Amino acid sequence: MVLPSRLARLLRSTHTWIGLGVLAPLGMLMVSGLMLLDLRQDAWDKAEQTSRNLLQVIERDIARNVEVIDLTLRAMQDNMRMPGLAKLDPDMRQLVLFDRATGARDLGVMFVLDENGDVVEDAAASPPRKGNYADRDYFQAHKANGHLGLYVGRPIVSRLTGERMVNFSRRIDKPDGSFGGLVLGSLKLTYFARLFDQIGLGQEGAINLYLRDGTRITRHPYLEADVGVNIAGSRTFDRFAREGAGKFVETSVRDGVRRLYTFSQVGDLPLILNVALAVDEVEAGWRAKAVSIGTVVLLLCGLTVVLSLLFGRELRHRAAMQAELARLSLTDALTGLPNRRRFEEAFEAAWDRARRTGKPLSLLVVDADHFKRYNDRYGHAVGDEVLKGLAQCLSAGVHRPDDLVARVGGEEFAILLPDTDQDGAMRIASKVHEAVATVSVPSAGIAAGAVTVSIGLTTGHGSASERAEALYRAADAALYEAKAAGRNQTRCAPGSEKGNLRAPVLRLVGAHRGQA
């Protein structure tokens, strides 16, 4: 049962509701933030998957076309070793060597070069077009190394057609193994442009094809100035070359745009392909959603916090009003002292405590002498001023937190003194008489000393045979004795020092003494 009671107290607490009103929006913000982060991760996952798919499609298309060219070059190598090839008619020899390769789309020039770099067979013309290519990188490479296999050259501008293309070549060996020239086929860069143009990557997206040494073969979007540029040593290309395949986010050395790079090697070729998506464009859709969702959530949370604070303020105001009403219900409106109800509660509590601890409890019942005369002669307004003055004097006579001065009816007051014996109570009564002697109402001509009080005093010791009503009755009886003895004095109840109060059980507070 302890937990429900504590929970009930918490639910009744203003601070609890204000705290919940603030924590709930914070929770909403946290949940919304996690949802937005999840949406951001979804955007990145989608971008990475898209990049991988595009990379795979492009890589397969390039590898297939290069394979077709390489098969043609291998066939040319084999055909060059056919007996009697040189005796064939030039047109027939061209058909045997090149078969139908010249009909391939985006295929550039296709030659057979001798050991001096001169064109000896031309797939596009018979007799062959004149030209020497001994200065080209592919010719020098094959001449220096007999084991290169398929060689992919740097992008060049064809001397015959003026078009940009990339060359693929294989070496021709003489019967003795010495260098006898090479077979060469090329692929126009328009092939890559046509392939890449079908893909939408956004305004800042890019596709790049590199040689393994860092030379850029082509790029999408296409720029002539980018072709043939070597970026070896850059952070991006070093990772391409080192890792072979994968993904990472890096800033481009070309234009400073931060991109998501997905890359791989093209088959077994010395080519590296990458698809690059701009980070800003990857997150553009997510950011638009984040701004809209975040704005709405912030507005709702802000509204919730404001309403919670206003609700909390209203609760505090209501609690303050209830506390004030409770205080007023226990306070005498005229004097500001605790009223009879408050006195009865405090008296019962003090009596129970005295019975538990065995410590003395003293009670003073104070009544203004001849108070009716003030009302009859000067009016109730002056009588009220007298009562206020008495209340101030009584309050000034006690100082301990547990002591209580209350107005219990008309001109009658009570002073409750826990843990106080009869001697201590007598000292308090003496101070009260001294303080009352200073009360005056100059506007009515009531001078100091004119107002006096009679006090009945009793002390109980909390024995099992005593009751709170008896203690009050004894003090009340002592008050009557003080009145009968001439007023302006204090009388102690008989036997109160010994804790032997056995007066009959009567009402806790005595009748109003309007005639006293």
Automatic annotation (TrEMBL):
EC number in record: 2.7.7.65
Domain GGDEF: 359-495
Gene Ontology MF terms in the entry: diguanylate cyclase activity
Signal sequence segment: none
InterPro entries from the UniProt entry: Diguanylate_Cyclase (IPR050469), GGDEF_dom (IPR000160), His-kinase-like_sensor (IPR054327), Nucleotide_cyclase (IPR029787), Rev_trsase/Diguanyl_cyclase (IPR043128)
SMART domains: GGDEF (SM00267)
The entry's keywords: Membrane, Transmembrane, Transmembrane helix
Protein name, per record: diguanylate cyclase
